[in-house]
């Protein structure tokens, strides 16, 4: 069995840093109201080796520390850690193997986004911030059982059809988000819940008005290439 001791000093140093990042980002899930009890998880892939750091399974957020984070390879095999990794580990690993630009994955059961998933409905692009962040609707992925790479496969297949979206609502389960690092994926999870709640409110007022695709494309291009500091 391969252990972290078999890797270089560079890899071990990155593992230490990523453990701290991933542990801290789990606190962000609580602060943004995206999870309850032990539900949900954050992972980040390393740049120096085909490894990832992920939350241990079934551990309450207030007990998470950098050292309690589990290191696995991209097949989901544990390389370092005293506890079992998240039950979504195989799916996170599948996403990393098949989406080489993704270095962060987040799963939550946030209330409004999960309600859209339970209804099997995508969130229509009715907000300029959706054009900015998602480049269109937040899509719905297929129903898949937990515990294997099946959910990850559904995420990859769905996002292949919606390449600008960092989020997918897995039907009857909840949102999965991806990013260039774990912080970006956490941001996408927070944004997914925000638009899910706002568009739900618009539906109660008589229905959300969708934005034309040409305007969505313009919004997304400005947000991705002009907005913010450079």
Describe it.
The chain is an alpha+beta fold. The chain contains seven helices and eight strands. Helix content is 42%, strand content 14%.
The total of beta strands comes to 8
Radius of gyration: 17 Å
What's the rounded overall pLDDT mean? 97
- The spatial strand order of the largest sheet comes to 4-3-2-1-5-8-7-6
Per DSSP, the total helix count is 7
Mind describing the biggest β-sheet? 8 strands, mixed
Silhouette? globular
Keyphrases for this structure?
230 residues; 7 helices; 42% helix; 8-stranded mixed β-sheet; alpha+beta; 8 strands
Give a brief description.
It contains seven helices and eight strands, in the order αββββαβααβαββαα. With 230 residues, the chain is of the alpha+beta class.
List the helices and strands and how they pair.
Elements: H1 9-31, E1 41-45, E2 51-54, E3 70-73, E4 78-80, H2 89-98, E5 104-107, H3 111-118, H4 128-134, E6 140-141, H5 150-161, E7 167-170, E8 174-179, H6 182-204, H7 213-225
Parallel strand pairs: 6-7
Antiparallel strand pairs: 1-2, 1-5, 2-3, 3-4, 5-8, 7-8
């Amino acid at each position: 069995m391969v252990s972290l001791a078999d890797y270089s000093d560079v890899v071990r140093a990155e593992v230490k840093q990523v453990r701290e990042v991933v542990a801290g980002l789990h606190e962000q899930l609580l602060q943004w109201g995206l999870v309850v009890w032990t539900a949900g998880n954050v992972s980040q892939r390393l740049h120096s080796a085909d490894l990832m750091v992920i939350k241990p399974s079934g551990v309450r957020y207030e007990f998470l520390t950098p050292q309690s984070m589990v290191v696995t390879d991209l097949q989901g095999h544990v390389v370092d850690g005293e506890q079992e990794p998240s039950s979504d580990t195989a799916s996170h690993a599948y996403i990393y193997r098949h989406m080489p630009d993704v270095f962060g994955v987040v799963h939550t059961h946030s209330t409004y986004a999960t309600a859209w998933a339970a209804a099997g409905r995508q969130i229509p692009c009715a907000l300029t911030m959706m054009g900015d962040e998602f480049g269109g609707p937040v899509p719905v992925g297929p129903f898949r059982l937990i515990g294997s790479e099946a959910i990850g496969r559904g995420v990859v297949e769905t996002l292949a059809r919606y390449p600008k979206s960092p989020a997918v609502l897995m039907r009857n389960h909840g949102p999965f988000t991806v990013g260039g690092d774990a912080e970006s994926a956490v941001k996408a999870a927070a944004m997914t819940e925000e638009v899910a709640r706002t568009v739900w409110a618009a539906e109660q007022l008589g229905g959300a008005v969708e934005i034309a695709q040409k305007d969505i494309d313009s919004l997304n291009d400005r947000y991705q290439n002009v907005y913010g500091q450079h």
